[in-house]
Amino acid sequence: MKLRTALLFVIIAFVLLASAFFVFSSRHRDKTIGAILSPASWQHMVASGELSKGHAFLENKCAACHTPVKGVEAKNCIVCHADNLAVLQRQPSAYHANIGECSACHLEHQGRVATTTKMDHVALARIGIKRLERDPQRGGADVAQIKRWLEEAASSPQPGNSGPATTSVAAQFALSHLQPEEALLNCAACHSTKDRHRGLFGNDCAQCHATAKWTFPDFRHPSSASQSCSQCHQAPPSHYMMHFKMISMGVAHMKKADVNQCFLCHQTTSWNDIKGVGFYKHH
Ligand code: HEC
Ligand code: HEC
Ligand code: HEC
Ligand code: HEC
Ligand code: HEC
Ligand code: HEC
Ligand code: HEC
Questions:
Q1: Which pairing describes strands 71-72 and 66-67: parallel, antiparallel, or unpaired?
Q2: How many other C-beta atoms lie within 10 A of the C-beta of residue 23?
Q3: Does residue 249 line the site of ligand 1, with CB under 6 A?
Q4: Which residues' Cβ are closer than 6 Å to ligand 7?
Q5: Rounded to the nearest 10 degrees, how much is the dihedral formed by the CA atoms of 177, 6, 195, 214?
Q6: pTM for this structure?
Q7: Which of 8, 2, 3 lies closest to 146 in space, CA to CA?
Q8: Ligand nearest 207 Cα, by number?
């Protein structure tokens, strides 16, 4: 868990440094590179798959993306894509401002497909680790230790990347579905705006969620007759204030109730669906 916390800083850094990277070089770069490298000699050296739809216009301009000797460089992509505010201003993709590597999640030469994008959380974590190696100061994490841990996790069938599950619902979705690298990521730094649970399940999304999709096909919610609600659900802050005695208990017509007895007052459909009262509208 400690290692994980350490790497979180790196990934958070992607997000926090976003604004620092808005200035990119001139948009005429592909011309310069084209002059250095003769397109004819380059293009016919190797056969590669067709470019995606969006990049089809670069079919005769390999050097727009490929730098001689070095290969595909992020700065070539950035020349054309630095000003994509839609991407930069969304929490999950804000790291684009300074990630510095592109092709791990944008695969080219797959034919005339509509998109090159394939989100890869493992690649994301690896980029984070590489950064740490280059700049160990940032985040103050011990890269050698992280790498040792990853090797161990990779060679053991049950990756030791989960702390003890802290809630019983978390126990149902043990961390074994995550790749060890993914366990290093701070999910909430990129996904808190998508938190369906309004923070009430905590910030450690990886306790329960994998990275392919948010849903669990096997999840069945306990019945509304269950009395174990508080094993999984934490009450909102208002329930630990005067509000609970003065408003909540009154609305639910409960003379005696403990905050932890959610089942006395709540249905499982929605938190505003109060037992014996119906849908409660806030004013
Ligand atoms: C829109 C950007 C783009 C253009 C234009 C482009 N490529 Fe690529 N190419 C890529 C990416 C991305 C990769 C994957 C590199 C990686 O995995 O790091 C790649 C990989 C390759 C590879 C595999 C070897 C390597 O360098 O990884 C070859 C060969 C290649 N390209 C040839 C070409 C040729 C020839 C052209 C021109 C006809 C071309 N490319 C135009 C983006 C581009
Ligand atoms: C860790 C994976 C990852 C890396 C690395 C990455 N991207 Fe992306 N990129 C994505 C994902 C996922 C999206 C889709 C975001 C969304 O749903 O809006 C995206 C979206 C984009 C888009 C907008 C696509 C559209 O549909 O309009 C552009 C342009 C883009 N990326 C360029 C880049 C460039 C340039 C780099 C390198 C500096 C880069 N990306 C690095 C994952 C990545
Ligand atoms: C010469 C300018 C230019 C270069 C260089 C370039 N692109 Fe593009 N790219 C475009 C244009 C134009 C489009 C199509 C319009 C659009 O969707 O923005 C596009 C589309 C895209 C898209 C959206 C469609 C999709 O595939 O999902 C992504 C992502 C993307 N480029 C990533 C990259 C990456 C990564 C590189 C470097 C390997 C790169 N681009 C290099 C100009 C460029
Ligand atoms: C640096 C940012 C970042 C971090 C950290 C991160 N993600 Fe993501 N994640 C993304 C992006 C970008 C996408 C692509 C979809 C989008 O743009 O909304 C994505 C997609 C997903 C999806 C699929 C969503 C869908 O509807 O297709 C899930 C599930 C997910 N992430 C879970 C996680 C979990 C769990 C963690 C922690 C282990 C995590 N993510 C860490 C940026 C991140
Ligand atoms: C204690 C376990 C647990 C934790 C921690 C947790 N979730 Fe969930 N989450 C679930 C369960 C179970 C569902 C219901 C899935 C279903 O109905 O298929 C769910 C549903 C979701 C959904 C809606 C899926 C859908 O489309 O129906 C999103 C989005 C989501 N969680 C995001 C997050 C984020 C972001 C975090 C971290 C800030 C997080 N979750 C933390 C257990 C958890
Ligand atoms: C085993 C753990 C668990 C138990 C026990 C449990 N819940 Fe849930 N509950 C969840 C998860 C996971 C979700 C789905 C994620 C979400 O929507 O926040 C959920 C969702 C809900 C929602 C929907 C929230 C929304 O806005 O969509 C309500 C209401 C709810 N539970 C009430 C209850 C009540 C009342 C009880 C007791 C009778 C109870 N739960 C018992 C795990 C549990
Ligand atoms: C005495 C009855 C009672 C008990 C016990 C109770 N609640 Fe509530 N709760 C209410 C009522 C009434 C409301 C709606 C009016 C309000 O905000 O007080 C509410 C509102 C909520 C809301 C929505 C708050 C918001 O800000 O939108 C959540 C979430 C919630 N309760 C969760 C819980 C959980 C979890 C428990 C158990 C750990 C619990 N409640 C116990 C009566 C109760």
A1: antiparallel
A2: 6
A3: no
A4: 229-230, 233, 235-236, 238-239, 247-249, 251-252, 254, 257, 259-262, 264-266, 271, 274, 280
A5: -20
A6: 0.83
A7: 3
A8: 5
- CA–centroid distance, 54 to ligand 3, in Å, is 6
pLDDT in tens, the chain (283 residues): 444 444 444 443 343 333 333 322 233 333 333 333 444 444 544 568 999 999 999 999 999 999 999 999 999 999 999 989 999 999 999 999 989 999 999 999 999 999 999 999 999 999 998 888 887 776 666 788 888 888 887 776 554 444 444 444 555 555 457 888 888 899 999 999 999 888 888 888 888 888 999 988 778 899 999 999 998 888 999 999 999 999 999 999 999 999 999 999 999 999 999 999 999 987 6
Q: What are phi and psi of 279, to 5 degrees?
A: -75, 120
Q: Angle of helix 143-155 relative to helix 121-134, nearest 10 degrees?
A: 150
What whole-number distance in Å separates Cα of residue 259 and Cα of residue 249? Answer: 10
Using CB distances shorter than 6 Å, the residues near ligand 4 are 11, 14, 92-93, 95, 119, 121, 124, 182, 185-187, 189-191, 205-206, 209, 211, 213-214
Is the beta carbon of 117 within 6 A of some atom in ligand 2? yes
Establish whether residue 87 lines the binding site of ligand 3, counting it when its CB lies within 6 angstroms of any ligand atom. no
Query: For residue 69, with 0-12 CB atoms within 10 Å meaning exposed, 13-18 middle and 19 or more buried, which class applies?
Result: exposed
